Amino acid sequence: MSNNFKRIDGRTPDQLRPYKIRAGILKNADGSAEIKLGKNWIVVGVYGPKEHFPKFEALQDRAILFCRYHMAPYSTTERKSPKPSRREIELSKVIRSALEEAVILERFPEMSIDIYIEVLQAEGSTRVASITAASVALAEAGIPMKDMVVGCSAGKVNGKIVLDIGETEDKEGEADLPIAIMPNLKKVVLLQMDGKLTHEEFKEAFEMALKGALELYEEQKRALKDLIEKMKELEGESNE
Ligand code: ADP
To answer: How many other C-beta atoms are found inside a 10 Å radius of the C-beta of residue 80?
Structure first.
C-alpha cells in the first residue's frame, strides 16, 4: 500500500481527528470536562466524593465508583431511544473498570463518586473519548488518582492499520482496537478488539493507539493547565 493512502475523511493512517478538551465547563458539578474528537462531542460531570446512599450498600474500605455512559437521542444518525440500551449498560461498566484502576478509592470509605457521561454527538470511538474526558473531570473534581487515564483506538480499514477509528471506518473496517492506558505508570487499563488482526497487525495497531493516546494525554494536561490559569486570573480580579 502506498504512503499517500488517504482515508474516507482525508486523514493519513496515523492521524487523529481534530481534537479539543476543555475542563471545568459545568457550573454545578464537582468536576467536569468536554471532549471534541472529530464530530464526537462528549460532556462529563463528576459528583463526589459524597456519602453513599443507601448506607447499607456502602463499602467500609473504599468508595464506590458509579459510571453512566449515555447517548442523547440526537447523538446518532437515527434517533436513539433515550432508554439505556444494552450497549450503554455494557460501556458504562467497561469505562468504570478502566477508571477504577486509577482512582484511589481506598481514600474514601463509605462514600461514592459518580461519573455521568453524555454523548451529545457520536462519530465512532466514543468509549475511549469518554474515558479521556472523564479522567479530566475527575482531576478537576480533585479526586486523587494514581495517574491520568487516556484512551484511543486503532484498527484495520481497507487492509491498512489506521489510528482513531471513525464511525464509517468502524462499520466498514476489518478491525477496531480501543485501548486506554495510564501514561506514566505505563499500564493498559482497557483493551478490546472487534474483528480480526494478525499477530503483526495487532502489534502495529496497538503501538499506533498507544501513540495516539500519548498525544491526547498532552491535550488533557493542556486543558487542566488552561483551567488553572483561568482560575488564577479570576482570583486576581476578585482581589483587585
Ligand atoms: P464506540 O463509540 O466506542 O466506537 P461502538 O463500536 O459500539 O462504540 O459504536 C461505534 C459508533 O457507532 C458510535 O461511536 C456511534 O457513532 C455509532 N453508534 C453506536 N450506537 C448507535 C446507535 N444506537 N445508533 C446509531 N449509531 C450508533
So the answer is: 18
